[in-house]
Amino acid sequence: MDSSLLTSQVYKLSSLIAYSKDSVVSKTLINKDSGTITLFSFDKDQGLSEHKAPYDALVYIIKGDMLIGIEENNFTVKTGETILLPANKMHSLKAISKSKMFLVMIKESKTKLTV
Questions:
Q1: Which stretches in the chain have pLDDT values below 50?
Q2: Which CATH superfamily is domain 17-40+54-106 in?
Q3: Which of 10, 14, 27, 68 is most deeply packed, by most CB within 10 A?
Q4: Could you give the 3-state DSSP secondary structure of residue 95?
């Protein structure tokens, strides 16, 4: 999605992505060198298998209930709640019910600012 289409307009996040039967759907809203914002929809019992990312990621549940595993810990995250997935830690996500979420990933700057 061209992020300029979202600029200076009000949106209801849940309306920007639809469910698909027995599937996970993703839609990238912003994709910059500095990070990404991606919407996801999950049909019930669908998810993302265990993986890790090199950057911290913030997950916000727009609608539904998700089971989110971070290494050996499992968390039930519900509508309106958020969880931080730490960089380089194994994590997985599974929809307990039909769910929508957004993921914000901020990449570490390669250059250090000095004052």
A1: none
A2: Jelly Rolls (2.60.120.10)
A3: 68
A4: strand
